[in-house]
Design brief:
alpha/beta, eight-stranded parallel β-sheet, two-stranded antiparallel ribbon, 10 helices
Amino acid sequence: MKAEGTMETRVSGLRKEVIISHNRQTIMIGERINPTGKKKLAQVLKSGDLRFIVEEAHAQIIEGADILDVNVGIPEIDEAALLTETIELLMSEVDAPLCFDSVNPVALEAALKAYRGKPLINSVSGEEKSMKTILPLVKEYNTAVIALPMDEKGIPQSTEKRMEISYKIVEQAGLLGIPAEDIIIDCLALSVATDSKAGLVALETTRRIRDDLGLNVTVGASNISFGMPERQVIDAGFLSLAVLSGLTCPIVDPGKMGPAILAADLLLGRDRYGSRYLKNHRLRKKSGKSTEV
Amino acid sequence: MKAEGTMETRVSGLRKEVIISHNRQTIMIGERINPTGKKKLAQVLKSGDLRFIVEEAHAQIIEGADILDVNVGIPEIDEAALLTETIELLMSEVDAPLCFDSVNPVALEAALKAYRGKPLINSVSGEEKSMKTILPLVKEYNTAVIALPMDEKGIPQSTEKRMEISYKIVEQAGLLGIPAEDIIIDCLALSVATDSKAGLVALETTRRIRDDLGLNVTVGASNISFGMPERQVIDAGFLSLAVLSGLTCPIVDPGKMGPAILAADLLLGRDRYGSRYLKNHRLRKKSGKSTEV
């Protein structure tokens, strides 16, 4: 299979469509609505007082997020109810399309029923069980989906094996009638602290997904620097390199990584007159978030 | 002309050789010994008390510089005498090879006579006058040289024209018996604030110099962000992208851009166990220069 060019993934909220494509500016998926390792957000989700989540949503959009990832996975809660409530609240507050970050099919389906627009599901993997539970939801509710090129044996170290699993997921999705362009591959960045080739493999996977499959590519950048000092330098460098290699929609903290991503687009000639970079700078400066010294 | 692989440029000080190559770690040329826009350094050079220059040399090496650029060009001085004195002082203080940053052939020749090792000359251009005065010095004193792909008409906006001038300089040098591997091309980064394609053209030139000529590539990164806010973000992003495209020996302030360059090498699998990145971090931390918060 050789892609005949690159594909467009369209996702939408009630009032806004976002097009992800290799020929356009990089789309940022804001990662901050996620309680993993964040005490305050975990507490907020337990208490049911979701105002802080709305604040985080607005802040991320000011910082440049185009899509918001929503993860409410904490122990001992009714994820279906909480995810649905959060999604409904966010739909009423922001225009940006949402990305449902859960592997719980019951929670996903409840939230999908409540959503108006075409969301992104994060994520399906190459494991049989995952494909069997997630892909039918992608089809039934007409969503886009992030696919992790890993399977029952874990995350492959080689680009070749990651490509093989990516092809498998695309094929399985195709059998259900899901178009390839609705699948976004996560290039899976592991830590360079434990494997010196981790960066290279993630970049090579990104390039191959673009060149061979024509699909959009995402990544959660911060794994790459796990265990290293001055992590933001490594994360920003990785995102720049990945954008050049074919990354189109990273999942990031836009407050930290927004400038690096917008700079990469600027340097690659995708930001005429630097207008997006400058607008983002002004907005962050106004809210006291510029890195300018 | 198609290169049969990539070439090695060797430069040396009295006690240290540095090999620049596409197959090795990125070499940093420290830019801070240059009075342009720096009041203190200009004053130091006028007064003749050069201790601050020695301090800057040591500091840049701690921060990761492999080669030191030396520019003493201020008005109303005897550049030949001052460049020679500075070069002699630095040779006695540091092992790193030096890069003579001057277009004054008299100053260059005086300094070349005093130098022991194989230095780098910064720079020759495609202008007839420049080639006629600089290339014979490169040949006679067996140096390496940075070549700017610009000519009497200024800096070309197109990659094609920059390649044409690069070929011309390599050819002219060849006629004098200067081997191609002693020529390092500057990809010439102009500001993205005035030309949205400036980054793309510099990156494309870098890639073509590597792929078509097999030569090493340098750049003075900070022009790229001239006129934009949060310049370090743009400079660091540009360096990452350029390293992936074939940049092998940027001229930078290692205190500001060192981490980004070492991170790029780390991400491209050129820094086993991250040992260079970690060592640099420790050294900077010890001298209070880490960006860690």
